[in-house]
Automatic annotation (TrEMBL):
Coiled coil: none annotated. The lineage of its organism: Bacteria, Bacillati, Actinomycetota, Actinomycetes, Mycobacteriales. SUPFAM superfamilies: NTF2-like (SSF54427). Residues 15-139 form the SnoaL-like domain. It holds the Pfam family SnoaL_4. CDD domains: NTF2_like (cd00531). This is Nuclear transport factor 2 family protein.
Amino acid sequence: MSGEESLAGLVARVERLEDELAIIRKLTAYGPLVDAGEADSVAELWAEDGVYDVEGWRMAGRAEVRSMVLSDAHQDIIGGGSAHFFGPPHIERIEGDEAEAICESILVRHEDGKFYIWRAGVHRIELRRTGNGWCVTRRVTRPLNGSAAARDLVAGRK
């Protein structure tokens, strides 16, 4: 292996690590931002044409994601105290400007002076590299309630 080949391999590995770190940072930003009610910042995690499909609610585009954060239902959740906690994303694929990851999460709520887990979910997330970095193009979320839909999502069956 020549010095140029070795350097090219090192550059490729560093670029891959930088992509993985950027994707992890993008995905793990969701919880703190959504708990703070930062609607514009949450919406910016998605591509302009990005889709968010969560438990029977399908949002298409940043405006609909922004509206979800501003909705009375979401404001009630965060107003009482909440933590959208994401486990570390497992990046399954990075190919050029496309990537796919999976992660699990819990939503912790505060009620009557106590914290409890209100929801556990699995998320399959597709991303695209844009001029503004990695953005979510499709995020599908299903509750981890033993359903076939959740198991299919975990297994990568869409």
